[in-house]
Amino acid sequence: xxxxxxxxxxxxxxxxxxxxxxxxxxxxxxxxxxxxxxxxxxxxxxxxxxxxxxxxxxxxxxxxxxxxxxxxxxxxxxxxxxxxxxxxxxxxxxxxxxxxxxxxxxxxxxxxxxxxxxxxxxxxxxxxxxxxxxxxxxxxxxxxxxxxxxxxxxxxxxxxxxxxxxxxxxxxxxxxxxxxxxxxxxxxxxxxxxxxxxxxxxxxxxxxxxxxxxxxxxxxxxxxxxxxxxxxxxxxxxxxxxxxxxxxxxxxxxxxxxxxxxxxxxxxxxxxxxxxxxxxxxxxxxxxxxxxxxxxxxxxxxxxxxxxxxxxxxxxxxxxxxxxxxxxxxxxxxxxxxxxxxxxxxxxxxxxxxxxxxxxxxxxxxxxxxxxxxxxxxxxxxxxxxxxxxxxxxxxxxxxxxxxxxxxxxxxxxxxxxxxxxxxxxxxxxxxxxxxxxxxxxxxxxxxxxxxxxxxxxxxxxxxxxxxxxxxxxxxxxxxxxxxxxxxxxxxxxxxxxxxxxxxx
Length: 505
Hints:
This protein has 505 residues and is of the alpha+beta class. It folds into three domains: 9-280, no CATH class; 302-335; 339-451, Immunoglobulin-like, CATH 2.60.40.1930. The chain is 56% helix and 14% strand. The chain contains 20 helices and nine strands. It has helices at 3-9, 16-38, 46-64, 66-69, 75-95, 99-105, 108-119, 122-131, 134-148, 151-159, 161-183, 197-217, 224-228, 237-269, 271-280, 288-292, 302-308, 310-333, 461-480, 497-502; strands at 342-350, 353-360, 364-365, 367-377, 388-395, 405-406, 417-423, 428-437, 440-451. The strands form two sheets. It has a five-stranded mixed beta sheet, with no helix packed on it. Strands 1-2-4-7 form a four-stranded antiparallel beta sheet, with no helix packed on it. A hairpin with a 2-residue loop joins strand 8 and strand 9 (440-451). Helix 9 (134-148) packs parallel to helix 12 (197-217) and helix 10 crosses helix 11 (161-183).
């Protein structure tokens, strides 16, 4: 394998917050699965747990692998990433029947006070029924998919890390809703005949085919960002776009058509049994009792039980675990930005090299800023990993000269050379990029506008979300227990209207 290929395979961009959240989800699921297995609940065999973990793994690979690192360079990488988010992870997760194991895996207090009541809340049940309606689900998936592939929204996602993550969330949630009626995870109930899933999947495949054909047969590049990006593997942006459409066409059609065929065969072979079951009717779904009972966990030490009691102990345990996990997740989500926040600032040919410089978009804040440089051969477009890159920042006016900084491979994208450059003052700067390879030398200059950082304290959004979610849980708890509070009754003198009213209770 070439050095470039090795660098591509090693260019992982592991998101700390998402990785922590997925690992925590896996732990909660496995804990619930083991508790159910110990209780001899037969509805979640081992293969379902494996399917759920594979779904989480597919989701993590989509977010952390080189597919994410190169999604802004190659639309094919971006498309495979979307296929994992929409066609692989959701059905695998739903095949794991995650509802009950996740609730059982929570601390007893959380399951009893929040998750259990929420799952049995009439409003939540009605919303769930509406979301998993076949017509709503298939239209939602089509609208979300087509909307995010319009040039305007697609470019917005490429230009902003926050919008890119929101795009991924939309794809994943819409796909979970779409695949829910197909998989029908236990213990949910189907709201349509099983045969209706076949045309439902075929409609999804038609939507996928139309969008794929647009990408394959378009005579121009739909997304200008990919046309501006340096070409890494020798084929044009238009060919890259056509290849992405072919990937979507093949992978999407397989994801839709294979389960449609399986369901059709199953329905035809088991129709007599289905009609008999329908004639008998079903009052309950197996395992409904698991949803409303059995939230307990193994008993702790006796002194803890005696001192606080079961309910208070469970509440204290939940608060401690919730605070620790929430603060950890918020801290990871508010951590330093990565290479996803860097955008192409210039792509210039100088000497035998084509030099692309990446940095934060717009004006730069005074202080330390990160820059990344890609060096390619001018003619062949081959990536030159053995080139030496030096960066030097100088004010556009004045005699001050900053030190030369050697860029290295310390980057999520191993094809780039990165360095931190100090831009100490608010003014116009010039970034000098000097490239050397053997006896060849080239230099380019990039003008920079450096502004004063915004003053004042801003609370990171992750902590705001944590506080808001904590407030929602507290309000839900107080609302549920409002009727259990003792009510003070002021007795009225005999013979008064108030006294007569009190005698009615």
